From TrEMBL:
Domain Phosphoribulokinase/uridine kinase: 9-166
Protein name: Ribosylnicotinamide kinase
InterPro entries xref list: P-loop_NTPase, PRK/URK
Kinase recorded as keyword: yes
Source organism, top-level taxon: Eukaryota
SUPFAM superfamilies tied to this protein: P-loop containing nucleoside triphosphate hydrolases
Amino acid sequence: MTNRKVVTVGISGASCSGKTTLVRWLEKIFPNIQTVYQDDFFKPEKEIPIDPVTKLNNWDCPEAVDFNEFTKVLHQLRTTGTLPSTFQSKESKNEHDDNDNNDNNDDNHNHNNHNHHNHHNNNNDDDEWNILLVDGFLLYVDQDVINELDTKLFVNASYDTLKTRRENRSVYVTIEGFWVDPPNYFDDIVWPNYAKANKHILDKLEKGNEKIENLNSDSIKIDDLTILESDHPTMISKNVEKVVMMILDHIVNKKK
């Protein structure tokens, strides 16, 4: 299907910012949708860099992610609607919610693998639009990944909110098994790496822009980055509504 009509939506932000909560609501709203998680593209644990100060595995730096494979899978999904036959999602086993309040979404902990990858209806209807969600904490540090995204979102939350949510989490599934944050991992690894990798975005955010036009750094170019605030769980409904309208507007504009 070389003429697929696809809207690719990048949803980025820090660990525990609320991006996966947003993804799960969008999966409920749109019938013809697929999701790919950047966390599925971590390198094997033996290849994860060691932080020189703490001597801990640094899972939060760009060097921990296989961007070549990540970009290849995104491009294949955009053009064919299928995943590589050898691909298996590990992130689907991380049944956590990255928001700090689940009262309005009790089934966040009970989602199944089909929510992630096979909502797509593989027919040849030329009028059918397909939505590809891309969830990742480091989407805007690699130009090849950025180039695969039609709509670019950044879910923003404060240091205090992120720290509380991260420290309330339990374990993470990795290629080899499980990972549990060592003491002080958020302050020593997660937060400084997030601030460093996203400095080109966070510097702009200090100006209070809800939408950042033509965001450029020395090597990264991002057009029309939309900021979604998520410090309070009640913001999710506003954010979902905004993203739904953005996706629909994109489809309408493409039809013109």
